[in-house]
Amino acid sequence: MQSDIDRAHxxxxxxxxxxxxxxxxxxxxxxxxxxxxxLSLIPGSSRVLDVGSGTGLYARxxxxxxxxxxxxxxxxxxxxxxxxDERLIPLVAGAEELAGGEIRLPHDSYDAILMKEVIHHVxxxxxxLDGMSRLLPPGGRILVAMLPSEIGYPLFxxxxxxxxxxxxxxxxxxxxxxxxGLRTELTYDEFxxxxxxDRYTQMVRNRYMSMLASFDxxxxxxxxxxIRRTHPGPEVRFPDRFAFVLGVKx
Length: 250
Hints:
alpha/beta
């Protein structure tokens, strides 16, 4: 699922992960509601598998509606940040292991599977999504929440170019879910973000996006200087646009 660079990145970032990604209470509520409404959870009874759960930022809100959420992540350090909640079950595992049946799961099937911003770490998405679809009962759902192929983030040019090289197209993910036998739907939504320039550049320095781990300290310093030149004001404003790829099993 992840390269050694990515694994080391998430282990190192674990204690700062929520600081970097919980942009604001408004953003968290917006994203959580977008996920919950597309997953169509049955209050108190849905079983959810959150693949790439990290610290459980969104599993926490999903658990308020679901019966149980299995939080799967390759980073044990991330999972250690999960709050104490009997509805949240940590599981050290990656997408390939889960899809291939290499890991014993707490349940035989799941009403909903969430893969938020994890599909770009997967080496062979069609194979993994096909395997994930086998964990669904009839009517079960897979939701892949991901960034589109082009983003309007105020990053430096080399980072944006690397993102374009690595990010799969949402249309290709929808096609893979369709070939796995699921009825698919691709929708987009966005949230306006505002940061002080100092906070945003500190997030970049912390390598808040995994692909930033590919740049060494000198390259990050040069990138931050570029960001400051191209965004001379005290704030940066940009839309955080997401693609939501939904697959429903017949």
